Amino acid sequence: MIRVVLARLGQMAFVMAGISILVFLIFFATPGTDPAARIAGRNAAPEVLAAVRHDFGFDQPLAVQYVLLMKRLFVTGDLTSFVNRGQKVVPSILQAVPVTMSLVVGAALVWVVASVAVGTLACVWRGTVVDKALMILGLIGISMPVFWVGEVANLITQSRYHDTWLFSWVPGLGYVPLTQDPVGWFKALVIPWVALAILFVGLYGRVLRASLVEAYGEDFIRTARAKGLGEGRILFRHALRTSMVTFVSMFGLDFGLLVGGGALLTEVVFGLQGVGYLTYNALQNLDLPVIMATVMYASFFVVASNAAVDLIYAALDPRVRLARA
Amino acid sequence: MRLRTLLTTSALALGFAASAVQAAPDRAELMKQHRGGTLKLNAHGSAGTIDPQINYEAEFWQLLYTTNDGLVTFKKVEGKDSNDVVPDLAEAIPSPQDGGKTYVFKLRPGVKFSTGKDVMPSDVVASLQRVFKVSSPTAGSFFNGIVGADDCLKTPATCTLKDGVIGDDKAGTVTVHLTEPDADFFYKMSAVHASILPADTPAKDLGTTPAAATGPYMIESYNPDRGMKIVRNPYFKQFSADAQPDGYVDGIEYNFGLDDQAGVTAVANGQADWTFDDVPTDRLNELGTKYPKQVHVHTLLAYYYVPMNVNLAPFNNVKARQAVAYAVDRKALVGLFGGPNLASPLCQQLPAGMAGHEDYCPFTQKPGAKWTAPDMAKAKQLIEESGTKGAKITLIGDDKAIPKSIATYMQSLLRELGYDVDLRVVSHNIQFTYIQNTNNKVQISVSDWYQDYPAPSDFLGVLFSCASFHEGSDSSINISGFCDKKIDDDMKKAAATAVTDRAAADKMWAQVDREVTDAAPAAALFQPKRVDFVASRVGNFTYSDQIHFLFSQAWVQ
Fold it and tell me: Measured by CB atoms within 10 angstroms of the end CB, which terminus of chain B is less buried, N or C?
């Protein structure tokens, strides 16, 4: 077991080192990305430009710059932004995490509950109008990009119908800390949760329905029926449980991606200052230290969620457990 | 600002006193009625460091003008007078001595920093040294005329300016020596970078730590990802209503996060009082019809232009450049910017309202004072004469909505003129430095320039003088690479004349403007306007040409 964990950690470090070198090289290989003049300010005199170049270490060899950057990110933790000078990158990410977590965990709850309901109902009534309607709705949900859903939601709730009884409760865009005002937190996040969850409800509902239908054709269901189990028990204890394997692996990866900053568009549209928003701004300003830190943070979550999915697999599906043993 | 009035110090002091007396009872009454509350501002993103001597973003200058002061500053009023320089921490605008090479500032007694310490001449000396020590963006362009600045630029760490800036704490004076007379000296000293900070302020970028304030407000906390909290400076006592009037609101909260669309919606809903970002053009109609009383439109001392590289084919041929200037349909471009209410066509390099601006438009159907319509026939004829037809051109655009639409328009126009044109759209944040560097071999691009101070030299001198051209550097603001010996001499003469006779100098600058416009290193497109949209509860919206919305003058109750 320890060997497995160590191997996993080794893989993780390897992947992250590779990504960091790639990001670093892309940043310096792209023409026009030299940050010195942008840091120095418009119409800076050549002497000022040279002084800034020296202060920020841009006159050093690339390899040295890379090592210094990594040292300041991982060892001393005092890496500062190129754009908002003096802003420490690590604390600013840590401070953005609760925002992203609030958004992603809430949305995940919405989409897990809704998609299990959609998938199960569609399977129970498979072939009927209900099934077809749910699947078409799911497809529509998948086809709507989240930034569009978000903008339309904002248009309706913030602009066109904000003054009506229906949406007058909607607070202005932005994040309200949970510890400061739980009700405000909920109000500020409920629309973003739904907007972010719509795509996943559609996707997961369809996938779950497909694997449920497939499971109903398997031998163990026939055995359960032969044992005289009730339909409800068969559905929830046997069919649904094994069908959750695909569901869980997808969930693990998506969740990891979103926590790592994949909810970027949702955060930007709803003005939530989370990790995705930070990444978006850093990309817009070509702020290398922040880009590097957010990419490292995101890759950590993607790699870690992969590992977690593997473990949960075993817990869910006896066949996986048996194969390993 | 006219220098003549500046030179007669006594008259100015008198005028200042009279206006203060007139305004005083009025202001006191208003202050009683409206004092209090919190002004809620929004911007899509923050704007970097809040070190007053380093930050170079309009977003924060607007704020730093209410927290910090220099020896002199722009008058904080609505209208044309807002371009005038008035004494701030100095008692009066000093008369020039030694033929305009020496100025002796006397500090106002009793002004305190937000730390409780008095503002002393030694603080002024340290602040001007600090400009160089922290490599302020304008150290080499605004403050290089101070005696000793050369050494400070070379080795910032040991900067003393010992022969250039001399403080006398006992007499309360600061003497500044210049290497040569500079007509724009007071404008440059009015910039936020010339703010006076306590002498013990660290000689490095303060970053997110607020500097000590001298204005009615001070920054309490700043988080570039979230927002900024500004509170009253407990040590502030109004010392000049013109230079630094007391503020109505008790605090200002600046939120960073909502983009331009969401920002406008928040203001409409009363969730925010004002948003920094430009109002999206598709919202203008809604604002004009639903909230006409909350919208304020003002002309900016700025212009959009198309710099053409005079050192690369095909635009090393003056006829090819003039052809572009003739062909541009400035009315169509004004339309792209939001219509005639938001911009006006411009043919010359000095925008309207700027000193030295005299209406001039050679590149139109009926050449004269104003632009009327593009002259395609003339443009095509010039292209034929230049022999550059069919040349391959790469046009560098920027990915923000309006510059991008301008670039797309320019691409189709250049094609119509017979060029083989590729459009390359570069990220907004990179484009400005990319097009400056000669190594990138940019032939033509779309750019804009906003004034730093209201002097013609800030456009013509900065954008088209030989001194602003640095080969192979990302900081070479003369994007066209234009360097004409005669025009350069004319600029120097105009700058020298301005020291003693501003009016005569303005005439000379007008001539330089015509010369540069004729040589067409850049085709001017239009002059933009600024739209400010404020919440219904905001009263006394005051707009200064230099600082824009004056936060300290607005009230919310």
Answer: C
Smallest CA–CA distance, residue A123 to chain B, in Å, is 41
Task: Provide the whole-model pTM.
Answer: 0.85
At what angle are helices A288-316 and A240-257 packed, to 10 degrees?
170
- B66-86 mean pLDDT: 95
Domain positions in chain A: 2-75, 89-324
Could you write out the DSSP letters of every residue in B142-171?
Answer: TSTTBTTHHHHHH-GGG---TTTEEEETTT
Two tokens, residue B143:
């403050």
Q: What's the rounded Cα separation, in Å, for the pair A272 and B265?
A: 16
Any idea what the CATH number is for the domain that residue B149 is in? 3.40.190.10
Are the beta carbons of B474 and A31 separated by less than 8 Å?
no
Q: What would the pLDDT profile of B3-42 be if each residue is shown by its tens digit?
A: 333 333 333 333 333 344 444 558 889 999 999 999 999 9
High-pLDDT (> 90) share of chain B, %: 82
What residues of chain A lie within 8 A of the CB of B433, using their CB? 32, 34, 37-38
pLDDT of B17 reads 38
Task: Clarify whether residues B371 and B426 are in a common domain.
Answer: yes
Q: Do B304 and B332 touch, CB atoms closer than 8 A?
A: no
Residue B75 placed within a domain: yes
Nearest CA to B194 out of B315, B3, B382, B55 is that of: B55
What is the residue type of B264?
A: V
Q: What is the complex's ipTM, to 2 decimals? A: 0.79
User: Does residue B353 sit in the same domain as residue B479?
Assistant: yes
Q: What is the pLDDT of residues B436-468, one digit of tens each?
A: 999 999 999 999 999 999 999 999 999 999 999
Higher pLDDT, B255 or A45: B255
Per-residue pLDDT of A85-95, as tens digits, reads 888 899 999 99
B486 with B358, same domain: the answer is yes
Which tops the pLDDT comparison, B65 or A35? B65
Is A36 in contact with B474 (Cβ distance < 8 A)? yes
Q: Which of A31, A55, A96 sits opposite B135 (nearest CB)?
A: A55
Q: How far apart are CA B544 and CA A181, in angstroms?
A: 39
Residues of A in contact with B51 (CB under 8 A): 85-86
pLDDT at position B513 is 96
For residues B557 and B5, give the distance between their C-alpha atoms in angstroms, rounded to a whole number: 38
Q: Count of domains in chain B?
A: 3
Residues B179 and B226 in one domain: no
% of chain A at pLDDT higher than 70: 96
Query: Residue A322: which pLDDT band, with cuts at 50, 70 and 90?
Result: low
Closest approach of A251 to chain B, Cα-based (Å): 29
Judged by a CB distance cut-off of 8 A, whether residue A29 touches chain B is no
**Environment class of residue B257 by beta-carbon count within 10 Å: exposed (0-12), middle (13-18) or buried (19+)?**
buried
State the residue range of the domain holding B67: 58-194
Give the span between the Cα atoms of B351 and B286, in whole angstroms.
29
CB pairs under 8 A between A and B: 157
In this complex, which of A33, A43, A87 lies closest to B430 when CB atoms are compared?
A: A33
Report if residue B26 sits inside a domain: no
With CB atoms and an 8 Å threshold, state whether A84 touches B265.
no
The reply to whether omega before B456 is within 30° of 0 (cis) is no
Mean pLDDT of B76-104: 94
Chain B residues lying within 8 Å of A273, measured CB to CB? 225-226, 256-257
Whether B101 and B154 share a structural domain = yes
Phi-psi region of B478 (alpha: psi -120 to 50; beta: other; left: phi over 0): beta
Pair B145, B240 in one domain: no
Across the interface, of A32, A172, A281, the residue whose CB is closest to B271 is A172
Does residue A231 carry a pLDDT above 90?
no
Report chain B residues whose CB lies below 8 A from the CB of A49.
Answer: 473-475
Fold of A89-324: MetI-like fold (1.10.3720)
| A206 pLDDT above the threshold of 80 | yes
Cβ of A37 and B54 within 8 Å?
no
